[in-house]
């Protein structure tokens, strides 16, 4: 417990990884049990995103908006721009 508090207070925390501008696969950093989607379609649930098949996706059941909550095991830095494809049926997100 004390070690965790020391790390939180800035004691022996490891230095952040350098930002070299390259895209990184964050799938191994995602805490899948903490992830959920609001108003997802039962035919296209959020769990499809973690299977690894690019043909599967996650869709809203009612409208064009889908709210995703993605939980990570550690801190991640999101780039200022949020690129995604403009195809309505397959909006692929890149973090």
Structure notes:
It is a single chain. With 95 residues, the protein is largely without helices or strands. It is 7% helix and 6% strand. It has 1 helix and 2 strands, in the order H-E-E. The chain has one helix spanning 2-8; strands spanning 36-38, 67-69. It has a two-stranded antiparallel ribbon. The longest helix has 7 residues, at 2-8. The relative contact order is 0.18. Residues 86-92 have low confidence and may be disordered.
Span of the ends, CA to CA: 32 Å
Number of helices: 1
Mean pLDDT over all positions: 74
What fraction of the residues are assigned to beta strands by DSSP? 5-15%
Strand order of the largest sheet: 1-2
Please state the structural category. little secondary structure
Largest sheet: 2 strands, antiparallel
Shape: elongated
Helices and strands in order:
Layout: H1 2-8, E1 36-38, E2 67-69
Antiparallel strand pairs: 1-2
Labels describing this entry:
2 strands, 95 residues, two-stranded antiparallel sheet, 1 helix, little secondary structure, elongated
Summarize the structure.
The protein has one helix at residues 2-8; strands at residues 36-38, 67-69. The protein has 95 residues and is mostly loops.
